[in-house]
Amino acid sequence: MSEPLFQASNLIYKDFLTYSSVKIEQGMINFIVGESGCGKSTFLKLLNQSINPASGELLYKGTPIEDYDPIALRREVSLVSQEPFLFDESIIDNFKTFYSLRKKTMPSSDYVKYIMDLCCVNVPLDQSASTLSGGERQRVYTSIFLSLCPKVILLDEPTAALDEKNSHSIMENITNFCKEKNIDIVIVSHNKTIVEDFCENKIEMIKEV
Hints:
By secondary structure, this protein is of the alpha/beta class.
């Protein structure tokens, strides 16, 4: 049995969120579920040091998370939040900007189109990101981070703006891609059907007081 991907013990964020014991497994499709306000999205941010806990222990592959360089960690453990950040330029130029920031070679247009198809993005590469709907922006943002092939991808409500059919398609595409590329995946979702169909390890969170 391999060690957990992440393990939290008595983790406290700002004195109002407590994660007593959370274990996320390597090589599995991990889903975090629970009622609104129990700290699911906050927990994802703790996993790649977008924010820091007040106290407690959080291990990534057996090593305390504070021992990692935050910038290097965020490149290895990529968070796709519900508030995507895209530049006011074309979709293809957004890819180029993100790859430049990571000092990585820009992939071919065919690869970009392939990744965007996986994420159900049906708009031209030369379209300005500023003209996209909220759901389209999130799917473009997801496709950029997926294309970078991080070691871990954290997805916060990736199907929130999709109907049931497209939700299933995008989750099937993303999980298959991650399995193929050995990318560990952690998903926050309220979609019970998606959780039932794709979950291999469920983490249920309850708001602790």
